[in-house]
Design brief:
heterodimer, A: about 260 residues, alpha+beta, four-stranded antiparallel beta sheet, about 40% helix, B: about 150 residues, mainly alpha, Rna Polymerase Sigma Factor, Chain: A, Arc Repressor Mutant, subunit A, 2 domains, 8 helices, about 0% strand
């Protein structure tokens, strides 16, 4: 049964639910391409269906995520279409793809970086579909910190660790002892009341050093922050502090991970 | 994304296959995601749901799918595992409760059950036109309820 044109409009809800049979799907899509109001409505309805998806969010088996990460490392991303600044994973990848070839085993380095980025990106996507894809901060600062982050991810001794956070959510760490630095990102940390923030620390024989506050999460995920001055026997820790940050931890860590090799 | 794929596809090994395809599609396309055209969450869940639907429509329907429909109400209770998901699930459940019965059934059978609007109409014994409008009205009401709730 073919639908007459005026009836196409009424398909908006069914289309957003992917409940339109194949034959009518293509016709509705042609209609969408011509009707701006319909396209706008479709975007709004998709936000509602995304919440239906969020309501059944679940963690996938760890082996599956590992398998996908390995596959992603071999899969080149599509170059960005023209438009707003690309997301941080894509920005970092581009920085590496477009860099002049450094000396040494370039292919292996590039693969390692892709692997680390894919891990951070996909672990969050698989669980909640939540990823910080928009560049919300100053691009100049972002590029500078991206460069430092890319250095760590690209280090020949870079190691990746993931850990559950006591309060909920998970943290992913990529560290390089050669660079004395680590990159830290989280997904699914519980939102904090106003006036409180998550603060990152390096703790060890050299005392407790603040590595700064985590940025506000975007869709449940914090964009990567870099902690420098990493010493051999350090642990990394996360505490809840006043939003302005503390000189020393004032609450017990919700994450404490030894970084000894 | 795994949750929605598993809910629609049901079979665990097939759900994993679909999720793998979806994640790679997201990975490949991440740099083409346009923030102005909706949230990252909507972008990714749209891909995940559509691939899950493609998979169940490709497999043979009939008995197994009927069973799945009967089970999906249970699955909905089982799945939410993360803290954020739990909070969101409560909101979504409350907002689904604010829909009319027919709106709610049309939306959930289509989204979680993977049925087309024609199949939903047949299952519920109501005209197709009614199901289509209930789906649209239901989603609009859901969106307004969830938006006002944040």
């Amino acid at each position: 049964m073919r639908l007459r044109r005026p009836e196409l409009h009424t398909l908006a809800g069914a289309y957003a639910l992917d409940a339109v049979p194949e034959a009518d799907r293509a016709r509705f899509e042609r209609h969408l391409a011509r009707c701006r109001a319909c396209a706008r409505e479709q975007r709004e309805l998709r936000e509602a269906t995304a919440r239906l998806a969020g309501a059944v969010a679940a963690d996938p088996p760890a082996e599956l995520v590992e398998r996908v990460i390995a596959a992603a490392a071999q899969t080149r991303q599509l170059p960005p279409a023209t438009g707003p600044a690309p997301a941080w994973p894509a920005r970092l990848i581009h920085q590496v793809w477009n860099a002049r070839r450094p000396p040494g085993p370039w292919r292996a380095r590039r693969r390692r970086l892709a692997l680390a980025l894919a891990a951070v990106f996909l672990a969050a996507a698989a669980a909640s579909g939540a990823i910080a894809l928009t560049a919300e901060h100053n691009l100049g600062a972002a590029q500078q910190s991206d460069h430092a982050i890319a250095e760590v991810l690209n280090a020949p001794d870079a190691v990746m660790l993931t850990s559950r956070v006591k309060a909920g959510g998970a943290a992913t760490i990529v560290m390089s002892h050669r660079d004395h630095a680590l990159v830290f990102t989280t997904a699914g940390l519980p939102p904090l009341p106003g006036g409180r923030g998550y603060q990152l620390w390096l703790m060890g024989p050299h005392g407790d050093r603040s590595a700064g506050l985590l940025p506000a999460p975007h869709n449940g995920m914090t964009s990567p922050v870099i902690a420098t001055g990493l010493a051999a026997a350090d642990s990394v820790a996360l505490t809840v502090e006043p939003a302005a940050g503390s000189g020393h931890p004032t609450s017990s860590p919700i994450l404490m991970l030894s970084l000894t090799a | 994304m795994f949750g929605v794929v598993r809910t629609v596809v049901r079979d665990p090994s097939q759900a994993e296959e679909v999720l793998q395809e979806v994640l790679l599609e997201v990975w490949r396309g991440a740099s083409r995601f346009k923030p102005g055209r909706g949230s990252a969450l909507a972008w990714m869940t749209t891909i995940a749901h559509r691939r899950a639907i493609d998979r169940v429509r490709a497999e043979n329907r009939s008995a197994e799918r009927q069973l799945r429909a009967a089970r999906h109400a249970v699955a909905y209770d089982e799945v939410a595992e993360t803290v954020e998901a739990r909070l969101d699930r409560e909101r979504v459940r409350r907002c689904l409760g604010s829909l009319t019965r027919l709106q709610c059934e049309s939306v959930t059978l289509a989204y979680y059950g993977g049925y087309t609007f024609r199949e939903v109409a047949a299952l519920l014994g109501v005209p197709e036109g009614t199901v289509k409008t209930r789906m649209r009205d239901g989603l609009i009401r859901l969106r307004d309820c969830l938006g006002a709730d944040q």
